[in-house]
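Sample intake sheet
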Amino acid sequence: MVARAFDLAAEVDAFLRHLAQVRDMSANTVRAYGTDLRAFAAWLGDPSRPPDRLDLRRYVAALHREGCKASTVQRKLSSLRALFRFLRERGVLATDPARLVRGPKLPARLPRVLTVAQVDQLLGLDFGADFQGRRDRAILEVLYSTGCRVAEAATLSLRCIDLDDGVARVVGKGRKERLALLGRPAVAAVRAWLPERARVLAEQGTSTQVLFINRRGRPLSTRWLFEVVRSAARRAGIPVRLSPHGLRHSFATHMLDRGADLRTVQELLGHENLATTQVYTHVSMARLREVYEAAHPHGQKRKA
């Protein structure tokens, strides 16, 4: 039974306002929810009819027929679950139609990480002493030293960095702040970058507190941060398709490999749930197994 006249488009708009104003989610996150929810509304067709469980199951089946990946289907279903939970709590709907709808099972995939030697190879590149060289080295050093997300690096502010103490205040998901640590190489790289940054800002007559900027004195986009990492990986001859998130994975795995406890890594990564961080323990065990099988006489795999 529906508590009042139903309008799916209006309810989606109300939910998105709730995400932005009450839950203080970023514009990108709200936009992603909106894209998923409006796609479902367009598929449903009738905005005045409250969706039921059968509608959601048919929608999941339609996504499969369209060739959507399991991860994409799960993401869209997660957006719908959040919407209908919101509507149920507000009394717009008497029941939650998404509560018992299951999505496809996701394959268990471990994140790709670099070896320590590959990180040394990447950061050992000659970046040059010009604007781009000093900026790109600082980007790579900060990403690996802090383990921050690409969006967090793109919005990192000078006001939030203490180079003397090697600490940065990072604004993560849900606008939550946490402290990240800058190692000596990252601090040195940022110090070397700041004069070039100041020069370009003066030449362009612009002002910003964002740490990483382009030649026009504007904040560097996440797309360009991706390109900086991928370009450096190609130059270093690293075979994996590296992204900023790959450096985050490598940061976490290398910390655990060297004895850091899971709670510390969870805090540094900004994970709300410890289970999210635990995937890196599996990565570490996989690496230990590789080393064991390569080095221990009784651990080596038999050759065919």
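Comment: The beta strands are 161-162, 167-171, 177-181. Residues 140 and 229 are 7 Å apart (CA to CA).
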